[in-house]
Amino acid sequence: MDAHPTGLNRRIFIVGGSNSILRNGWTYALADALGPDQPITNLSCGAASTLMGLFRFLGQIDQCRPGDVVIWEYALNDQNHCSSGQSWQVLVRYVKWMIRLCHDHGLLFLPLVLHQRSWHNSTPPTCPYYRALENLFQAAGIKAVSDEPIIRARIRGGQSIDKIFADPVHLRNGPKLMAAFARDIVAALSGLEPLGPKALQASIPQPGATLTLATDFAAGETLTFKNSIVNLIGHPIQQSPGLTCKGKLLGLIVVTGTARTALELKIGSQVIGPISTQAFPAHVSKQWILKQIAVEGQFPKTPILAEGAITIRTATPRWRRPYVQNTYVWSPVKPGQNGAETRPSVVAALIETGVPHHYEPPKLLARIKLKLRNTLRRLANR
């Protein structure tokens, strides 16, 4: 990898899911391969999609310098959300925004595309998300690092898939396997080229398009959430924090726990929700977890446009169960459950401006499938 114009190595920013924060995983192997003088900032956050990656990246983008590298690893997570009912078109748009932000700030972009264990068990299934992702990278002139050559070589060599994956979505952190990922990434870094006009045209091409973090909340109580990864200010949802912004609402970033809680959004005369904020218990290791709530393409009235104030308030579902997005549940709280005392709080909203709002409602069959999937999920969470 060429030297940074300042004489230092280009800094690397990693934006990915839980495989990117796995102890002794590929990020550790990459750091070992590049040596102690290579600055690496890991912004990864698990149990989320590229929407969370955009939040983490936008929070650090002022620290990036032209020529720095962004390694994106959210494909496996995005596909998981796609399988759970989220629109693949919306998920791919998140990736387009990553490319656009990197282009505008002079950053190099390297995708690391991982797949779930089931993908490698047999002939890969037809998947609209991965197909669209491949088409996007091809149109943008972006070369991705894929796990397929590494894993297929091991399977051909007689290695069991269960020796490669610890569970359906997480790789084992065997040193030889992780070193193979590091070698492929280092090789890709050495030939990485700046994003050109093709990348801009393939991503979000509108000249005035912006994606911002809206944090202009009305004055009120705030809570601090801090761990080894993040240091955040949250606004308790039970106090109905008002947020001033203008544009299309893509999603919210919240801190929540395992209490059976829900929220709703009030934008003008429109009320959206209720939406579960009860985190999947297995994901909450201590008292709270950083989560996303996707808005774009999730609700009947889309796009959701804000022209001033958004009120985010607690909802008490009575006659209907709330929307339960991927990695959330709606179930009774068990005694002593981690995170049961956490007050859900909103941290930021992702707001898009300068992009025409074209939305095609799902076709009848797609709507029926989505409604059936959501109904089955709600029944399973009773």
UniProtKB/TrEMBL annotation:
<protein>
    <submittedName>
        <fullName>Uncharacterized protein</fullName>
    </submittedName>
</protein>
<dbReference type="InterPro" id="IPR036514">
    <property type="entry name" value="SGNH_hydro_sf"/>
</dbReference>
<dbReference type="GO" id="GO:0016788">
    <property type="term" value="F:hydrolase activity, acting on ester bonds"/>
</dbReference>
